[in-house]
Amino acid sequence: MRGDGEDQVTAITAARSCAVTALGTVFSRDITGLSERDLHDNWQAEIAKTPTVTPHGWYAPPPAGMSVLVGAPPDYRRANFTSLRDHAKWPRPDKFATRDSLLFVYCSPVDRRTAMLGDFQATLYGGDVAEVQDHITVALEVTLDAVAYAEVGMEYRELYDHAVAAMRRREVTNDTHSSTDRSGDTNIGHTVPWFGAEPEDAVRAALRDEDHLALAAAMSGARRFLTERQRARIGCDEAFTVEPQITSRRGVLASFHFIVVFTGGAKLVLAGLSPLFARFDMARYLPGELTAAVAEHDRQAQSGVPPSA
């Protein structure tokens, strides 16, 4: 039995929206002086208020399948990582947010009924250092460009090559690796497991029993990564993430996570970044065409109707 594509799109959108709304609630209060652990726990508590999604994400470790990292000036290296699974990059109680912090946030809730993931990730910065602002702009620009380039029939490696070429032109690099991908290749994202299909009975059992380890193993193993060697083609009914971790020559990392969904060939892009950009006043340095593109993706996602194929 095949999965209901429209139902799955609704589930992905709702799970991701839950993550964004919960984070917005956390950030609606003054976060100055709060630790990474405080922000992590507060975010999870807000997500837990929505019973249709799992408050413990599928991508674990890190704890609860989510992360908050606080990069402090002048180098912001705390928010630079190779893998969030690394214990050294788990949220800590002694790393505190300030107005000048570079924040990296990630979570991976799952819709309980359909097993569709609702991953969300972003780099947020309300400070005034031009170098950091410029790098965030480059990261968003490259990622939006890759999202726009994706089309049905394209090999995933074509999308990867397009994104990497854009990074080279801007003299930045992508440091996204997966510890579960034995190839060791860098990637810019992965497919959404079981989109257009029914998840295995073991997956449904893991969701029912809240068996986090079993869910993590199943989800991790069911992904295909968007790498330079991935010859699989984007189908008419396909969903995948675009989430390069883009690092500047001076070691500042910025990353934005989008989910691209094709149903019957029609394309929908899930972003959810607009309210967070507003919270950190990022429009004062992000180019208008980039914030407008994000806002349009958010508008289409809220309407629930993708543009025609």
- Assign an overall shape: globular
CATH architecture: Alpha-Beta Complex
- Tell me, what is the CATH class? Alpha Beta
Secondary-structure element pattern, one letter each: HHEEEHHEHHEEEEEHH
| SS content category | alpha+beta
What is the number of E strands? 9
Average predicted local confidence, pLDDT: 94
Under CATH, the topology is which? Creatine Amidinohydrolase
Radius of gyration: 18 Å
Order of strands across the main sheet: 1-2-3
Terminal CA distance: 25 Å
Mind describing the biggest β-sheet?
Answer: 3 strands, antiparallel
Which runs of at least 5 residues are low in confidence (pLDDT < 50)?
A: none
Helix content: 25-40%
Strand content: 5-15%
Give the total of domains. Answer: 1
**Which homologous superfamily in CATH is the superfamily?**
Creatinase/methionine aminopeptidase superfamily
How many helix segments?
8
Summarize this structure as a short list of keywords or feature phrases.
single chain, 309 residues, alpha+beta, Creatine Amidinohydrolase, three-stranded antiparallel sheet
Give the topology.
Layout: H1 5-27, H2 36-47, E1 66-71, E2 102-107, E3 120-125, H3 130-149, H4 156-169, E4 173-174, H5 201-209, H6 212-221, E5 238-242, E6 245-247, E7 253-255, E8 258-263, E9 266-270, H7 274-279, H8 288-303
Antiparallel strand pairs: 1-2, 2-3, 4-6, 5-8, 6-7, 8-9
Helix pairs in contact: 1-2, 3-4, 5-6
Textual characterization of the structure:
With 309 residues, this protein is an alpha+beta fold. It has a single domain, classed as Alpha-Beta Complex (Creatine Amidinohydrolase). Helices cover 36% and strands 14% of the residues. It has a three-stranded antiparallel sheet, sandwiched between helices. A three-stranded antiparallel sheet has the order 4-6-7, covered by helices on one side. Strand 8 (258-263) and strand 9 (266-270) form a beta hairpin. Helix 1 (5-27) packs across helix 2 (36-47) and helix 3 (130-149) runs antiparallel to helix 4. The longest helix is centred in the first third of the chain and has 23 residues, at 5-27. The model has no long low-confidence stretch (mean pLDDT 94).
